[in-house]
Amino acid sequence: AQKVTQAQTEISVVEKEDVTLDCVYETRDTTYYLFWYKQPPSGELVFLIRRNSFDEQNEISGRYSWNFQKSTSSFNFTITASQVVDSAVYFCALSEKLELTGGGNKLTFGTGTQLKVEL
Amino acid sequence: ETGVTQTPRHLVMGMTNKKSLKCEQHLGHNAMYWYKQSAKKPLELMFVYNFKEQTENNSVPSRFSPECPNSSHLFLHLHTLQPEDSALYLCASSQVRVGGNSYEQYFGPGTRLTVT
User: Cβ separation of A103 and B51 shorter than 8 Å?
Assistant: First the structure.
């Protein structure tokens, strides 16, 4: 069975600090996808990034960067120079291909990390 | 409108009521999903529809009944719910590609359901 662990329940930082959100996953699939989503207080999950299991290149997008380490089954997310608007719950997720009719992907989510950025 | 929309945003219902949640996606996707998000728990996948066919029912009680009349609309019919069903219900959509792989799911804002 697939599993995603986000050990950090809540993190508080002061604005402009860097912060790293940890994600560790378990899967028996050889091909899989990892995702990060942001859930602001409004409730909507916002897609941030997708990474497939073949691509271990780290990615940077503005203040966001992701570190995928297949050897340790981790997919960590770093926010550089955090801002108050970054305050949200962040979810890491792992996809599992649905075999029934070959359609859709089942996402297994971690429990999320609540990030609070204060002035 | 763009993206994934859900109505109503908030719903309070008694245990004997019947209500429906509606989801509409404007992304041209062919797969739609219902998730339940309860406090202190991971998001739980409830149902998956691919090309209007239900491909996953994640052991959801029969008091939740999904309906997918076309690839753009998804409903969740509710009847005789329990207080523990109070949660945020999220709809999502994605594009399923050749070989059955689909990529990121795009979520709606959710319906906050309270069962009294």
Answer: yes
DSSP string, B17-57: -EEEEEEEE-S--SEEEEEEE-TTS--EEEEEEETTEEEEE
Residue of A2, A100, A108, A114 to mutate for B, most B C-beta atoms under 10 A = A100
Mean pLDDT, chain A, rounded, equals 90
Contact A109 B42 (CB under 8 A): yes
**Neighbour count for residue A34 (Cβ, 10 Å):** 22
Q: What percent of chain B has pLDDT over 70?
A: 91
Helix, strand, coil in percent for chain A, rounding step 5: 5, 55, 40
- From chain B, pick out residues whose CB is under 8 angstroms from the CB of A111: 40-42
pLDDT digits (tens, 9 = 90+) for A82-107: 999 999 999 999 987 655 445 566 78
* Distance in Å, alpha carbon of B102 to nearest chain A alpha carbon: 6
Arithmetic mean of pLDDT over chain B:
89
Q: Are A105 and B102 in contact (CB under 8 A)?
A: yes
* Amino acid at site A38: K
**What φ, ψ does residue A87 adopt, rounded to 5°?**
-60, 120
